[in-house]
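Repro:
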Amino acid sequence: MVEQVFTLFVLIFIFFSLLKDVLSPSVSFLIGLAVLVASGIISVDEAFVGFSNQNLVIIGSLFVLARALQSTVNIAAISKKMFGEPNSRRKSLLRIMVPVSASSAFVNNTPVVAMLINPIINWSKERNVSASRFLIPLSYAAIFGGALTLIGTSTNLVVSGLLSDYGYEPFSFFELTKIGLPLAVIGLTTIVILGPKLIPERKLADLDEAEIEKGFTIDVSPQKTILSKTVNDAGLRHLKDVFLAEITRANGDVIAPVSPETQIKKGDTLRFSGNAESLAKLAKRQNLKPIEDKHIAKLNNRRNIYIESVVGHNKSIAGKTLAEISFRSKYQAAVLAIFRSGEKIKGSLGNVELKPGDSLLLVTDEGFEGRWQDRSDFLFLRQIGSDSMGSGISNTNFYFVLLSMLLLAVFQVPLAIIIMLGALMTIILKINTTSQAKNAIDFELLIMIAAAIGVARAVDMSGLAASASTLIIEYFGVFGVIGLLFGVILATSILTELVTNNAAALLVFPIAISTAVSAGADPRVFAMAIAIAASLSFISPLGYQTNTMVYSAGGYKFSDFFRLGIILNIITTISLVTIVGVFFL
């Protein structure tokens, strides 16, 4: 009993560390694992069994393959054919979501969403429709696609690896499809029916009464050529996709709204709002000088380029100000503007505490993307005014890699070997450089998974899993095995909204297996259920990485996800319990 209580306290520590973002996920699980070893609950060999799990090789190799795909496929060209004409909003939703779900079944859904955000924004702009109507469905479709195959999301591989550690056969490649496909059909149908009603249009008009699709703000000082002129005479009215929001005088007085007859004076700070492309052009004007120009001058770049980036969950940047992390020296980039969904950025940019999902407009050098594209500091990056795509040779080489992997699968070569060889071939054929391949791998995630497997082993060996399963049986067993399945899925769904999907699956897995064994049910079915339930995160923009990415890009408010997400969560949870209960138990 003492071991169970002690293990429970370790789990509580890990949970609150993840919830409050006190420590990174990998460090949280490693500390928990170390404490469990030191207390004698598990041996050193048992604690580190996760580090020899073959699924770590598969997950790491998939990151490399995803990096190769992102650098070779011309998404902009494909998207134009895919999206079609918006003669029907529901038809357009289908044309976007179905291919995205299919793609996410075979490629990590994060790069899929990253590559499609800007094509959707451009497509919407050309047709005078709001991109916000489509970006939440984009993320949700990618989530459903991840549940279709073993490699659709790292969570499926994590649960498969745990199954193997518990003495069961790991998932086959399409085993989850039998549950994931009908669930995806139900989910996408729900989005098509309810999405147009529940997903609002979001523009900067919600904040500033100006029709600009994305509200970056940039502070500039007027040069001598326009001093003493009116705003109208200086040519600062009716700029394309840019709005002069306010003027701050040298004495601190703020003029807002700004009249066309307002005179520009020495010492003024002009704050403009607009989209990334337009503000990048504004920063190049001769009669305006960005306030951050002193930082730009220190970059010593031969050629400055403009990058739009989205802040990730990495604690090295999230929760800190630009000044605290010495942003310019660390990233060799200067921040010109910050956009935060639903808020105006006030005061000096250097004192703004960055949050996950914030969009930054950067001026930097041409090597910035190569250095940071595959790091967790930023969820995604794009160069303003440039649609990157691979050469014809690299495209051909990548298709050769895919064909080779399919041939190996036909001859029943183990999946870990196939994926690893595919990743190595991208380096040999120069689709990825060695540095790009290394940077593409999320080592933070791999360490977390390996450590969490050891923690899961401790939960089982201490008897805590058996005790927890007894409680689930006591409260949900009255409804039979389906009631127990619902209890496990409900616990997973709640946790995945609070912590990462992988962490949710890892924490629930030993309890789910113990519950299934105690009830005489198939543990494999319970494992499939929690693998899928852990990825079904729709309520919060911060619950799943793709949600965070579109949160900023679409200019959404937090509640925009909840409105459709809560309904989608209820429907998918009921559907998941029904599908698994009727056809697999």
